[in-house]
Amino acid sequence: MSFEVFEKLEAKVQQAIDTITLLQMEIEELKEKNGQLSQEVQQAAESRETLVRENEHLKEEQVVWQERLRALLGKMEEV
């Protein structure tokens, strides 16, 4: 009787070991995925910053062109 209990216990321990091994593999996969996603987030943030700077530059250019246009229109009205 005790031999059967020992076999059942051994089977449960083996099952627990197998489950732990699978979970450890899943954890490693998730860590890798997390690393990849972190890199993607960093790249997206850098791209956003680049676009924000470019947008500010274009807005500044637009203001300069508007001032030039107003100056030209002012000269035309004087004529």
From TrEMBL:
Its main location: cytoplasm. InterPro entries: Cell_div_ZapB. It is found in: Cytoplasm. It comes from the Bacteria. Residues 6-61 form a coiled coil. Keywords: Cell cycle, Cell division, Coiled coil, Cytoplasm, Septation. The keyword S-adenosyl-L-methionine does not apply. Homodimer. The ends of the coiled-coil dimer bind to each other, forming polymers. Interacts with FtsZ. Non-essential, abundant cell division factor that is required for proper Z-ring formation. It is recruited early to the divisome by direct interaction with FtsZ, stimulating Z-ring assembly and thereby promoting cell division earlier in the cell cycle. Its recruitment to the Z-ring requires functional FtsA or ZipA. Belongs to the ZapB family. This is Cell division protein ZapB. It comes from Symbiopectobacterium purcellii.
